[in-house]
Amino acid sequence: MARGGFEDLFVWQKSMSLVTNVYSLTRSFPSDERFGLTSQMRRAAVSIPSNIAEGHARHTTKEYVLFVSHAEGSTAELQTQLRIAIDLGYCVPEVAGVVFDQIAEIRKMLNALRRELNARIART
Fold first, then answer.
1. Residue 57 to residue 63: CA distance in whole angstroms
2. What does the pLDDT look like over 88-117, one tens digit per residue?
3. Which DSSP string corresponds to 36-102?
4. Is pLDDT of 1 > 50?
5. In angstroms, what is the C-alpha Rg of the chain?
6. Pairwise CA distance, residues 15 & 123, whole Å
7. How far apart are CA 26 and CA 33, in angstroms?
8. What does DSSP assign to residue 29?
């Protein structure tokens, strides 16, 4: 795996796109959710590319793995919050489906990145 900047990572790029979609989706949520579910979903989405970037900037591969794991956790958090938003009637499943698909793709990419990083650790 080449060691370019984090902005070169497809998983980071896809995560940035996810952030944009989550912000768009939550714009239509009720205003009384501004400091509730809207804020939590946006924070979870932003956390994904942020953790990828921070892990990439760390000095050891072990630290990188930890931040990739944090990003994976944020995908699960966002998926749960999106389900809650559907259950509360804030968005319809068809609209949320795009975000669910992005989350699934990013989760797979993060899993692959974590496996590669762990293999790198095992080789040293």
1. 9
2. 999 999 999 999 999 999 999 999 999 999
3. THHHHHHHHHHHHHHHHHHHHHSSSHHHHHHHHHHHHHHHHHHHHHHHHHHHTTSS-HHHHHHHHHH
4. no
5. 15
6. 29
7. 9
8. S
Measured distance CA(3)–CA(124) in Å, rounded: 16
Overall residue count recorded for the chain in this entry:
124
Tokens at residue 118, please? 């762990």
What does each C-alpha distance from 29 to 11, 69, 95 come to in angstroms? 27, 29, 13
- pLDDT score for 3: 56
H or E segment and range at residue 17 = helix 10-26
Taking only the tens place, the pLDDT of each residue in 15-55 is 999 999 999 999 999 999 989 999 999 999 999 999 999 99
DSSP 12: H
CA dist 45 and 80 (Å) reads 12
